Automatic annotation (TrEMBL):
GO terms for molecular function: metal ion binding; oxidoreductase activity, acting on paired donors, with incorporation or reduction of molecular oxygen, reduced flavin or flavoprotein as one donor, and incorporation of one atom of oxygen. GO terms for biological process: terpenoid biosynthetic process. Belongs to the cytochrome P450 family. It comes from the Eukaryota. This is Cytochrome P450 736A117-like protein. It is found in: Membrane. It comes from Salvia divinorum. One of its GO terms (cellular component) is membrane.
């Protein structure tokens, strides 16, 4: 965040030198543009983002409406803060807003954008998306990883029980992160690469990559990209790329050379497609690497952060915790551990999870880019306009939610509302053609970070014994 403030101050100074007293006022856009707050020459509204952009944008929307126009430098930006407007963009005009913003950092880290999250909308993206949906994330495949989830969860519970029995403090933050990494590496690579040299290096790369998703000058001001070279940011990304290749390439090579490599893990499936084992389906090696990165960047820290928030809310709301404990204990009875089938029989658990991601969405803001000139609710939108949909604000909109700031899972009992992208007042993972999560080009860390756009990290769950 220090870099972000440095850029903001520097650009503000340049703006003042350029035109000390020229500030654009609301209404200075054409009548065909949405309402907008004042903006400074050169930097636009960047200085108004604050440490938590989803909250800053929500506050601005209270004055300028659910569809407002900002500027990030020369880039026009539409900010959406209501379900009705989101529906028009993500459903009515979905194809017109199917593109995603291009970030220099993501292109460099994700093999030139050869992954399902960062690829532009088109035939290659559709092909890669179909591979992910039909070969990696189909129902039978997800169920086949169930034993991994059960084993790693049981192992985590035994560790917690052992520490609690010995009256030792339990650092749930650290233990949840380790369990999440173990689960993902087993599902992705077939074994716990987190315990190998290359595996540890790869997980370090993923963690460091999440922490470097910061505001970059060249994304909004290409002509100021030289500053990223001077302040060492480019060199840091180069080191990350080297670390990525030094860790992931040997893992892939190990799978390619192993005669008994299992195809029951994500890497094995992708490399099987790469070698032509599945007729009519193809993928290049760069895309194999890109998809693996998608899975890790979207599955490790996201899961850990969500569970930390869950534990935090349960500690804050002991009545909810007691109801959830009673449901789990009633379902388990003489069973030794919770299974996937058992989870389907716990309606209160499902309600708690829905309420959790309503209040703390893993993707507080997600982005689109207009592909065509379009009339949106009477306003003219030009191609390449960036669209930011504030899922955090929509999830707390009093128009749709009673007592929106209250953690109240009961609101989802006997409710058909789901988070799969069809109910636009609950879209924590996006919606429409380009529903996959993607990091956003603003904020202090990636959107899957609990110290970034998702909000300040909840209290670290240290020295807490979970009973």
């Amino acid at each position: 965040m220090e870099d972000f403030h440095f850029y903001t101050v520097s650009l503000s100074f340049l703006a003042l030198l350029y035109a000390w007293f020229f500030i654009r006022r609301p209404g200075s856009y054409t009548s065909q543009s949405p309402p907008s707050p004042p903006w400074l020459l050169i930097i636009g509204n960047i200085h108004q983002l604050g440490k938590l952009p989803h909250r800053s944008l929500w506050k601005l929307s209270q004055n300028y409406g659910p569809l407002m126009l900002l500027r990030f430098g020369p880039q026009p930006v539409l900010v959406v803060s209501s379900a009705d407007v989101a529906r028009k963009i993500l459903k009515t005009h979905d194809l017109a807003f199917a593109d995603k913003p291009v970030m220099d950092l993501l292109n460099r880290l994700f093999y030139g954008g050869n992954d399902v999250i960062n690829l532009p909308y088109g035939d290659k993206w559709r092909n890669l998306r179909n591979i992910v949906l039909h070969e990696l994330l189909n129902t039978s495949r997800v169920r086949s990883f169930g034993f991994i989830r059960e084993e790693e969860t049981s192992l985590l519970m035994r560790k917690i029980e052992g520490l609690s029995s010995a009256s030792q403090p339990v650092n749930l933050t650290r233990m949840l992160a380790a369990a999440s990494n173990a689960l993902i590496t087993r599902a992705a690579f077939g074994k716990k690469y987190s315990e190998t040299e290359h595996g540890k290096m790869f997980l370090d790369f993923v963690a460091e990559a999440s922490g470097i998703f910061k505001f970059a000058l060249r994304d909004s001001f290409p002509w100021l990209g030289w500053i990223d070279r001077l302040n060492g940011r480019d060199a840091a990304i180069d080191r990350l790329v080297e670390k990525r290749d030094a860790s992931l390439d040997p893992i892939i090579q190990d799978h390619l050379e192993s005669e008994d490599a299992s195809k029951e893990n994500i890497m094995g499936i992708l490399l099987g497609i790469y070698k032509g084992d599945i007729p009519g389906v193809s993928i290049d090696l760069m895309s194999v690497k890109g998809v693996i990165l998608d899975i890790f960047t979207g599955g490790t820290e996201t899961t850990t952060t969500a569970v930390i928030w869950l534990m935090t809310e349960l500690i804050r709301h002991p009545t909810v915790m007691k109801k959830l404990q009673d449901e789990i204990r009633g379902m388990m009875k003489e069973k030794h551990h919770v299974t996937d089938d058992g989870l389907q029989k716990m309606p209160y658990m499902k309600a708690v999870i829905k309420e959790l991601i309503r209040l703390h969405p893993p993707l507080p803001i997600f982005s689109r880019v207009a592909r065509d000139h379009i009339n949106l609710m009477g306003y003219e939108v030009t191609p390449t306009t960036l669209v930011l949909i504030n899922a955090w604000a929509i999830g707390r909109d009093p128009v749709y939610w009673e007592e929106p700031d209250k953690f109240m899972p009961e609101r989802f009992l006997n409710s058909s509302i789901d988070f799969k992208g069809h109910d636009f007042h609950l879209i924590p993972f996006g919606s429409g053609q380009a529903m996959y999560l993607r990091p956003l080009p603003l904020g202090t860390r990636s959107q899957i970070s609990c110290s970034g756009l998702i909000g300040p990290c909840p209290m670290e769950l240290k020295e807490k014994t979970w009973m």
